């Protein structure tokens, strides 16, 4: 597969550095893109003595990570197969659990998502990424500043291996990642309109990339406005199901792309009543984790095929347990494992890259 480019200066970074926040609907989209395959980006890299992008050889040619912000397990179970046909088809087609866990310290958006892409816990004092806020504040300006030391991400690891990455997010606070790894995210799109965001994600599939992260926000927005498990909230979960269906359909439309892509799907937190920020509540810390693709067995439970991991039941669990639950923080190292890239230095979740998506032979 032909690979491409180095990154230009991001408008997202410029806005964030100026303390500006994007608001609104479809027009509120920031799209930062690099150059075309084999174009000026590769030529500049070659002339500067930098490595030009190469194929990453692993179980997958490409990994897509999808996070549905605020989607609770209770909603997935209540709505069921008839109302969430795409999510239930996703589970039947791959490996999954509806009893995964968030980070232990906090059940809020930006800290948990940063755990997903760094493979770290939150608490900086014990090796975590240090992102404890959940807004667009300009300082700390980067994940590294929050941690007090260098923090690698799935984006930077793929970039260093010669690959290409992209971020599609429905909240402006994700501009933190572009500031933190500015040379590693080849395209950043932030659009508050989720349908428009998915349109742009689908359009980007024509560009060969190794890793894409897609953040969808309808359940979280409806939960805060109307309460988790309210009628508007359940409608938002159904909307997210349709958006996931569009993504899967677009990936599967090309046989080669379908054969080479693994999709990971999880959430940053659940929710209960009007909020989700109590890390001691089961409804807040219990989430789904799903995977599908040619590198994944069909219709299997993740705990059944992973004896190194333990189904936590209803327990919250700690990081000290020898057999961890499946956490949303495994996204980074699992994606890198699928791409045949080593685990992130300093990471914790799936650092041994031993989370299996297929049963042992």
UniProtKB/TrEMBL annotation:
Region (Disordered): 33-52
Residues making up the signal peptide according to the UniProt record: 1-29
InterPro entries: Alkaline_phosphatase_core_sf (IPR017850), Phosphodiest/P_Trfase (IPR002591)
Source domain of life: Bacteria
Pfam families attached to this UniProt entry: Phosphodiest (PF01663)
Database matches in PANTHER family: BIS(5'-ADENOSYL)-TRIPHOSPHATASE, ECTONUCLEOTIDE PYROPHOSPHATASE/PHOSPHODIESTERASE
Protein name (database record): Alkaline phosphatase family protein
Species name: Nocardioides zeicaulis
Lineage: Bacteria, Bacillati, Actinomycetota, Actinomycetes, Propionibacteriales
């Amino acid at each position: 597969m032909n690979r491409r480019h180095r990154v230009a200066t991001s408008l997202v970074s410029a806005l964030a550095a100026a303390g500006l926040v994007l608001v609104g609907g479809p027009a509120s989209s920031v799209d930062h893109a690099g150059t075309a395959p084999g174009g000026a980006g590769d030529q500049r890299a070659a002339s500067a003595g930098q490595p030009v992008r190469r194929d990453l050889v692993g179980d997958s040619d490409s990994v897509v990570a999808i996070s549905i912000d605020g989607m609770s397990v209770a909603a997935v179970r209540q709505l069921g197969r008839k109302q969430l046909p795409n999510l239930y088809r996703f589970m039947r087609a791959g490996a999954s659990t509806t009893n995964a866990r968030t980070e232990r310290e906090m059940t809020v958006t930006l800290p948990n998502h940063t755990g997903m892409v760094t493979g770290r816990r939150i608490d900086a004092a014990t090796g975590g990424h240090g992102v404890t806020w959940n807004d667009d504040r300009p300082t700390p300006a980067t994940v590294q500043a929050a941690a007090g030391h260098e923090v690698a991400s799935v984006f930077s690891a793929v970039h260093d291996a010669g690959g290409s990455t992209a971020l599609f997010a429905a909240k402006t606070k994700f501009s933190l990642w572009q500031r933190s790894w500015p040379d590693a995210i080849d395209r950043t799109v932030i659009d508050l309109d989720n349908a428009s965001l998915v349109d742009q994600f689908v359009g980007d599939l024509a560009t060969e990339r190794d890793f894409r992260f897609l953040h969808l926000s309808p359940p979280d927005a409806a939960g805060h406005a109307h309460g988790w498990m309210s009628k508007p909230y359940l409608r938002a979960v159904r909307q997210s199901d349709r958006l996931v269906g569009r993504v899967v359909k677009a990936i599967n439309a090309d046989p080669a792309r379908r054969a080479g892509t693994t999709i990971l799907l999880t959430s940053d937190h659940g929710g209960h009543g009007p909020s989700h920020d109590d890390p001691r509540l089961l409804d807040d810390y219990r989430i789904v984790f799903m995977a599908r693709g040619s590198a994944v067995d069909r219709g299997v439970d993740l705990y059944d095929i992973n004896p190194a991991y333990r189904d936590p039941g209803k327990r919250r669990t700690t990081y000290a347990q020898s057999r961890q639950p499946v956490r949303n923080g495994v996204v980074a190292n699992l994606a890198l494992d699928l791409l045949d890239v080593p685990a992130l230095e300093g990471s914790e979740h799936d650092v041994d890259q031993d989370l299996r998506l297929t049963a042992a032979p």
